[in-house]
Amino acid sequence: MCGVNAVGRILAGLLADRIGRINAQVLLIFVSGVTCLVLWTSAKSFGMLLFFTLAFGLTGGGYWALVAPAVAEIVGLTALPGALSIVFLVNVIPLIFAGPIADAIYDGEGSTSYLGSILFTGCALCGGALLLLGTKFAKNPKIWAKV
Prior knowledge:
This protein is mainly alpha-helical. It has helices at 2-19, 21-40, 46-75, 80-109, 115-139. Helix 1 crosses helix 3 (46-75).
């Protein structure tokens, strides 16, 4: 997935140049979530799991490639160092608790399926994209504006 992720980061930058940093960020995060909800949940064979890995790798790396440009778009270059530090600090919280949450969901299901954890992941990504969409509309309320 790392090799595909590297290609996805480059493509994310190109997409951001065309449609705007925040728009690209919203789109890639949302597509990552949909990829989890649609492809990962239906992956019953190695080939389908490989297809999910390729699709998620292409879209998932977009977050890390565009986080700094999107934050710069929101707060400006003078406030970027402090704002980006806060964003990275806030990113630590889900990384710390993601494993225990996934484990609790897995144990709560009482089965050997990871479906609950997969659904949680996809819904969290889609929800995050919708929250970022609110930031986009706060920055510029026009739907097709390049932000």
